[in-house]
Amino acid sequence: MSKTAIHGSWVVGFEEGEHVIYRDGVAVYEDDHILYAGKRYAEPVDRRIDLPGRLISPGLINTHLHVALPNDHYQYEDPSRADQVGLSWLNAHMTSPGAQQQARPSPQLTTTHVLRLCWHSGTTTVLNATAPPNSDPVVEVLEDIGGRIYAGCSFGSSSWTTEENGAVGQVWDADDSKGMQGLEQSVAFFQKYYGKAGGRYKAMLSPSQSDTVTPAVLKATAEIARRRDLPITTHASYTPNEVRWMLQRYRKTPIELFDSVGLLGENVIIGHCLLLSGHSWVHYPCTDDVGLLARTGTSIAHAPIKYAAMGMIMESFSRLLKAGVNVTIATDFSPHDLLPQMRTAGLMSKVADGTYVSGTPREVFNAATLGAAKALRRPDLGRLSAGAKADIAVFDLRKSKFGPIQDPIRHLIGAGDSGDVEMVVVDGRTVLEDYHLTTVDEVALDREVHALTQQIWDEAPNFDYESRTVDQIIPPAFKMV
To answer: 232 lies in a domain?
Structure first.
């Protein structure tokens, strides 16, 4: 057993159910848990770390991302999917009939790459919504380099297709056998992987999307989860086309459909949930999605930068919180830096509400810590208090961009990014120190990631419906010669 004390100019402690800032405070942890967070600690420690000018914070929690392609952010600049109103990820996930399969990275590589990006942003827990069916390599990565992951083995009742002219379609499983088999595999995935890597790998049930899973499969998922108290993650209310399609097919919004089959509740985290009834992009004020989410205790994983890139904003972050909805913060795609996501969530909330008092630093910081911990039903995460997990992020606020510090949280949200993260501890293990990872050769990792990305770009014509190059699919900002 080893006891470590980290002294900083500010420590985010926890009192009476909320964060509190201790000036010139200390956080003490022993093995994998916090012993103390406060002003002074009189007992002896094995290691003392003095970090003046730094903010000692609970590790952040990213509630929705995909450990998949290392360049996944690039595809959101694709202008050829205007017909899908923002569903620009389809070019990377769908192939034309008879097309060759594009290169896919190993789970070890992508998991290592994504965790590296998360650690550099002060994130210590992530939720991977689409884990590979065989996650043994991912567990091995966690054993070697640390990290805390929630993951779901995704399943559905249909698959996306691309027609010869590029039009998007779906092929449905007529008898629900595909969806039910996927549910069975997801349950088996849960049984195999829940609690692996010393309890740091947690499995979830993961029906893919509201518009790719039948109500019968969603209902069966909800019943199994309720019977066995299993967590669920999924996608819903994420594009205008999806919401309209659900209204046409079922006469219900995605959230209404989920409610009708029992797939809302405190064990459910829904990715995105941006286009709720009443949203200006949906123009459907005939129901109360927000009220359904609030009454059932369902959580939202909000990725604001992704939607800002597609011209959409949540209406609004603060409004949903005030209505009683548990809204958390996510990245969805790389670079998985949670601090700009928190800042953007606040800014877009101000824009949506037309007032600077919306989207406060308190709201977005709570969303990335306490709110996320609530969504995962983990009161031992997202806070620095006795008995909580030793998941710690240290932010360097000495840099000139922050200026004189009056409120460390306000300054961190206003100007912080991954370059300000000096130290990260996950489950008592230091995974980043002095701005560098302690468990990964980042130079070698970058070489692998860059080589893989170039291979994927080079192979773009093999799976595009018009055999276009990546520069034709997504034109560069300027002519490159």
So the answer is: yes
